[in-house]
Amino acid sequence: MSRQKLAIVTHEACIAHDPGPHHPESPARLRETLKMLASAEFSGLPRFECTEAAVDALNTAHTKAYVQSILALDGHSRQLDADTFVSPGSVKAAKLAAGGALNAVDLVMSGEFSAAFAAIRPPGHHAERAQAMGFCLFSNAAIAAFYARKKFGIKRIAVADFDVHHGNGTEAIFAGDPNLLYVSSHQSPCYPGTGLVSAGNSVNLPLLPGSGGTEFRAAWAHAGIPALNRFAPELLIISAGFDAHNSDPLAQLRLSDSDFAWITRQLIEIANLHSHGRVVSLLEGGYDLPALVGSIATHLREFTA
Q1: How, if at all, do strands 279-283 and 113-119 pair?
Q2: Of the residues 6, 7, 82, 136, which has the fewest C-beta atoms closer than 10 A?
Q3: pLDDT band at 2, cuts 50/70/90?
């Protein structure tokens, strides 16, 4: 059986997570992404619906008390911190987002696909073991890593994160585990104020506001990519945030579509060297709708080239 290059994992119910009017993490992010995925260029890609993550899977990255506190909000509206909100459809969306990450792992580990992209929301990389924050409820990437380890016996798993914000949640959940690696480029200073230095199993690549493709590529080429190659992951998970784009309103990095194409190619090469080509890519940030949709399209084209 020959492997297909890319599968898409998504669910329209993730649109039902509604943080409120004027919130940057809006339902339109996924709605516009799904329109793009239905275009002639991408409509032929195999598409799978997310299934909800089981409670046991959520508990691998979060405390049981925290998971139960989020699940108890199903059908309700609540503000969890300064910018993280729950609406009546949010808990289902969050379970589907985490489940979509697990479905993506299943697809690449089955041998049928080299890569899977999960078009999901809410995002996940700020969620800590016992705290929602930064628009995030569950740590989708961390949950996927622990699932791959338990179900498939994968030992070394890396998360590469090029969202403009540091994934404090992923870093904290992974901390102290030598068989997990977290590599992140992000603007600093910027929310959430973490990721200033590398430590333990986290490699942080902070970029000053105003940095563009030259600085971004240099950081990955000089530190991020070598760290991933030394670690030699058996599975590579990408926290694919596109809010480092020049047009994004939430930060001040100046990346273009060509920079997202470049980092995607580098990560695919790492997966080809160490992971039998297996890549799971999970949507994180990106808040200018045209830039988001264009950047995702650029990202996907590298997998299907």
Answers
A1: parallel
A2: 82
A3: low
Give me the catalytic one of 125, 126, 245, 299. 126
pLDDT (tens digit, 9 = 90+) per residue, 266-288?
999 999 999 999 999 999 999 99
Residues 6+ apart with CB under 8 A from 45: 6, 7, 8, 37, 300, 304
Q: By the 8 A CB rule, do 296 and 281 touch?
A: no
Q: Is 126 part of the annotated catalytic residue set?
A: yes
Question: Residue 64 and residue 236: Cα distance in Å, rounded?
Answer: 27
What the chain holds in terms of domains, given with CATH numbers, is 4-304 (3.40.800.20)
| pTM, full prediction | 0.98
